Amino acid sequence: MQQRLMVTWLAWLVYRLLGLPILISIFNPMNPDIVGGIAWQALWLVPALVLTPSILRGRSPYALLIDSMVTLVYLGASGVVLFTRVYGSSWAEILVYLLDFVLLLLVNTWLFLLLKRLPSMNNVVKQPRAR
Question: How many angstroms separate the CA atoms of 120 and 56, rounded?
Fold first, then answer.
């Protein structure tokens, strides 16, 4: 599960940072600037890049829980962008944003499944008191 999460996370980061701006520049008739798109995505991905070490390790339930909350925000934003692009964009652009949404959905799915497999956070074994 951790391996799937790591591969999907890295694929999403690379796609979001490089693939999405390049493909949108190709498919959008206004030909937006690729370098500007990459710079914008890099700025937008700062929280995700901060989370990357804890996602790649995938061992701490607390860190993965926070990672899951942040990636859910990314998933929501990606869904809103996809929904707004359905009206007035070409099919190729819609597929570019759909791939972003699907990759984020997979990341969130793997995070959820990995969190279920990790040891419980509230099941701490307490030592008996000495009398």
Answer: 20
Token pair in block for residue 75:
């998933």
pTM of the model: 0.85
For residue 130, how many other CB atoms are within 10 A of its CB?
4
Single out the residue of 93, 90, 94 nearest to residue 22, CA to CA: 93
Q: Which tokens in the block code for residue 6?
A: 């790591």
Name the phi and psi angles at 28, rounded to 5.
-80, 125
25 and 41 Cβ atoms separated by less than 8 Å? no
Of 33-37, 55-59, 65-69, the one with minimum mean pLDDT is: 55-59
DSSP label at residue 15:
I
Q: How far is CA 126 from the centre of its chain?
A: 36
